[in-house]
Amino acid sequence: MQMIKTPVNGMKDIEPREMELRQFILSKIREVYSRFGFTEIETPNIEHIENLLSDQGWDNEKLIFKILKRGEKLDKAFEAGNMNELVDSGLRYDLTVPLCRFYSNNKDKLTLPFKAMQIGNVYRADRPQKGRFRQFCQCDIDILGESTNLGEIETLLATSTLLKEIGFDKYNFSFDINDRRILKSMTMYAGFPDSDFESVCITLDKLDKVGFDGVKKELLDKGFAEDKIDKFNSLFDAVGTSNGDEVNYNNKTCDSVQSIKNLFAKIVGVNADKVNNDLDIELNSICNNLIEIIETVTKNIDVKINFNPTLVRGMGYYTGPIFEIKSERFSGSVGGGGRYDKMVSKFIGQDVPALGISIGFERIIGIYLDDDFKIPNCIKKIAYLIEKGISIDKKAEIISKALSERKNGNIVYIAELAKNKKFQCEKLEALGYTEFETYT
What is the predicted pLDDT for the residue at 183? Predict the structure, then answer.
């Protein structure tokens, strides 16, 4: 049987030019996040299937690459005829679940708050398309043990700093921000019971793909009452979302703290018919928290933050503020995250405040490759091309010269001169070589 030379569908080989770019971006990620006090850890690619199927990842849990049991355990599972017993592990679909397991297993050895940096491949049996693979690299920072909004502020500042230092600000990136508790208030006001919150949010998360009409259709298909759906959608009309308007808040466009509070008040109808007094008090606190995050970040770094009441984030574990990175260069998000204060309790039975963000590493790499991004590099890349039949003494002299250049930190490529020198040099130029020396 002939072997297959192409990668498995949804996977890809990485060529030298892209690999060099990836390593440059990864080095900047490690450098910048380290300056903010994040320390790097590593977790296995394979996780317990019980952890992956915990109803925290929503639709992503449908995309898990499951791993069969081995040997006698697999044989016994087949004999029992129980398909659920065939699997005991799977490839991780994100880095958050493994991080929470890591923290739960090592918490007595960690300093709180624990600021973690994680870089590694994750896997989803998704439909491959541009910017979306079945194996892709995620780059996460998370803070566990920080209950105040200092966690959100530090996370957004670190991410903004990183994107600026790799030159991504030329694509006018910004943040969308929301709070899951605001979404819950909206569903309550519309008349949905608390038990339907996740189902409604899973559908709302598809808004950018299907629009409000598509959201309404799917909610109707799920059996929800039309009057509740219309009341829910009308809340977004109140803030100019469904007609495409943006509601922007940063240090330049925010008129006052009260203007944001008034906006949130409209969302849940607090100015008209209150849901209840407790909700009114809670929303006031949630508003103040978001305002403080937005104003503190934008006063310290030049970045736009947009309040987006339709922002959901497609994971079930978020409990508070959530955010996504947007760019004019990509129709979807190029990163996102939020607070997930209940996740660790799944492992140890007690809540631990936690939040994090993941940048869309593969999407950023794709944008840079499309734009032929040049890596800023003061190191010289020199090619020594040696004609066939050169004397041993001359070859030794060339190699000695190359070693001297390498000792000085430069990159030297030595190869036999090809018959088509122009083609050979063009290939090397594509890899960043700028100096060529031919020896005959």
Answer: 83
